[in-house]
Design goal:
There is one protein chain. The protein has 563 residues and is of the alpha/beta class. Among the domains are: 87-224, Rossmann fold, CATH 3.40.50; 256-420, Collagenase (Catalytic Domain) (3-Layer(aba) Sandwich). Helices cover 50% and strands 15% of the residues. It has helices spanning 2-26, 33-62, 71-78, 100-117, 149-153, 194-211, 213-224, 238-251, 277-290, 403-420, 430-462, 470-492, 495-513, 516-522, 526-562, and strands at 87-94, 123-129, 156-164, 172-175, 181-186, 258-267, 274-275, 297-305, 318-320, 325-328, 353-360, 368-370, 377-380, 384-388, 400-401. The chain is flat and about 140 Å long.
């Protein structure tokens, strides 16, 4: 056994030697210190290029520009902390037939009555006397605004004109329809009977509160979301006023400094082929449009189209044997406009386009009325108005519509225009309704611009990856400047100027919020960035990282051996 085992060991000994020789040949020769230093310098240079050159270039080319925004000021405007809107409405008491002392005493008592009955924290009626200086006013009269510089430069909303008429045993109030004047007819007043002045003052205060009731309720609801109780008149229904305001807002266009009016004549046959629209506009609608100059401007164009076919989706008109008329159902009115064939472009002018359509049916379908009401006109909210013009039998086949023929059409178009621009329904005086609309528009625009600033601030904080160009910051600064100016003018009672600055502020706020370069980044989330960078940087980063780790490991092993 020993000899056999010795033979086996003798046979295995050469094989082991061969294996050890092969392994010794596969091992690389030990690196020289210079080679190790060179390799480490190469790895360091790669990392240095990536860190000192590549990363700055990448950061500079991919960094999203974010201009500094006054976020605290924007949030303050959005929350209503910067500007507490108050609307002083200045009224002039004119009484040329009364003594100065009686006039001032009457104005003071009217102001006391207004302050006592008016519970609105926003809308304040202020009475000043006409033709009297500050020295003429009582120095200890806390209820009346003196005729100071601020009162003189502010806009006067209305004039309370006292008219002496001994035939009236009780005072009577009449509002002039085309002037901002409230006439108060009264009997004689005696300085020896204070009750006469007191009774007249109470009557004037009640009439003024009734006159501005709709405006006060609307502003309270618009700015605070609440309504105040009016002690002056139990007949004032705040909920009804608010409901009418909502309907009016739904019908009306968004406020614009310029509207474009398009008057179109569409005929179902070859006649009438012309209309004296220019003379009709100048005569019946021109003064009406001119009265709106303090609120908005208007541009006008006209057009005529013959053989204008009705919309194919229209079910009617149907002939009614009983009335001998062609009738349209109320459900047909929404499909009456043939938008596919009638040239009614919504973007003709600078501002929003308001369309007014006069349709003359063909003789085969005349007269044409609405079945439910028997009327011939209707309003399309935020679009325009339509009037069916049925030719009278004595006109025959006239090929042109005269100015007299167009008078009722222009009257209807004027009423429709009032609804489309959101003119309040009361009071009965057109200038007073326009001044109410001015204050209402100024308040809504200030709220809109402030709300947009708040939305932009929240968007900036929530989406930190979106770009904020310098022009956005500039628009925000301009918005805040014009909001401050508008708020100042509102407090001073200069509502025309306040409306103009509020309109500019709202335009700049919308421009900042809807900046195209900023909006585009909203739809580019971080997941997309990862999907772009990983395939590009992964193949380059793995060799650098692995080489650095391997070299660090060898460095630690070398230090362990030396120690």
């Amino acid at each position: 056994m020993d000899s056999q085992q010795a033979g086996i060991d003798a046979k295995d000994a050469p094989a082991e030697g061969i294996v050890h020789a092969a392994l010794s040949r596969k091992q690389p020769p030990p690196e020289s210190p210079d080679g190790i230093k060179t390799r480490r310098w190469i790895i360091f240079c790669f990392w240095a290029i990536a860190g000192l050159l590549g990363l700055p270039i990448w950061y500079a080319t991919t960094t999203v520009p974010r201009a500094a925004l006054p976020l605290e000021s924007m949030d303050a405007w959005a929350s209503g902390q910067t500007c507490k809107l108050e609307f002083p409405v200045h009224l002039v008491l004119a009484a040329s037939h009364l003594d100065t002392a009686i006039t001032i005493d009457l104005a003071q008592q009217v102001q006391r009555g207004l302050d006592k009955q008016n519970k609105s924290p926003i809308h304040r009626l202020r009475v000043i006397t006409s033709g009297h200086s500050t020295a003429d006013q009582s120095a200890d009269a806390p209820y009346i605004d003196p005729l100071s510089s601020s009162a003189i430069t502010s806009q006067v909303a209305a004039t309370v004109n006292l008219v002496l008429d001994t035939s009236y045993t009780q005072p009577l109030a009449k509002v002039q329809p085309f002037d901002p004047i409230l006439d108060i007819y009264h009997g004689s007043l005696s300085s020896t009977q204070p009750s006469d002045v007191s009774n007249l003052a109470d009557f004037i205060a009640n009439e003024l509160l009734k006159l501005f009731a709709e405006e006060q309720v609307t502003l309270d609801y618009l700015l605070t979301g609440q309504t105040t109780h009016h002690e002056s008149s139990g007949s004032i229904d705040s909920s009804s006023i608010i409901e009418n305001y909502r309907k009016r807002s739904n019908r009306a266009f968004k406020y614009a400094s310029t509207y474009h009016l398009t008057f179109s004549l569409f005929t179902g046959s070859a006649s009438p082929s012309a209309w004296d629209i220019k003379a009709a506009l100048d005569e019946y609608l021109g003064p009406f449009l001119a009265s709106f100059s303090s609120v908005s401007k208007f541009s006008v164009d006209t057009q005529v189209q013959l053989y204008a076919s009705l919309s194919p989706s229209l079910h009617g008109p149907q002939y009614d044997e009983a009335s001998k008329k062609w009738t349209l159902l109320r459900s047909d009115l929404s499909a009456f406009i043939n938008a596919a064939e009638w040239p009614l472009s919504p973007s003709i002018g600078v501002g929003p386009t308001i369309n007014f359509v006069a349709y003359v049916p063909s003789p085969k379908q005349a007269p044409m009325v609405i079945q439910e009401t028997g009327g011939t006109s209707w309003l399309i909210p935020q679009w325009g108005g339509v009037q069916i013009l049925n030719p009278s039998t004595d006109q025959g086949n006239n090929t042109a519509l005269t100015k007299q023929d167009l008078e009722p059409v222009m009257r209807i178009f004027a009423e429709q225009l009032e609804s489309l621009i959101g003119l309040p329904q009361s009071p009965s005086s057109l200038p007073l309704r326009l001044s109410s609309l001015t204050r209402e528009r100024a308040a809504s625009l200030i709220l809109s611009a402030s709300s947009t600033l708040g939305a932009l601030s929240r968007l900036t904080l929530k989406l930190t990856s979106i770009a904020i160009p310098d022009n956005v910051a500039d628009s925000v600064q301009k918005t805040i400047h014009h909001l401050e100016t508008a708020c100042s003018h509102v407090h001073e009672g200069q509502y025309d100027t306040a409306l103009e600055h509020a309109r500019i502020a709202e335009a700049h706020a919308e421009q900042a919020f809807f900046e195209p370069s900023m909006v585009g980044q909203v739809y580019f989330p971080d997941e997309h960035k990862v999907a772009v960078y990983v395939p590009l940087l992964g193949p380059m980063a793995v060799p650098l990282v692995m080489a650095a780790l391997k070299e660090f490991k060898q460095f630690k092993q070398a230090r362990a051996k030396t120690s």
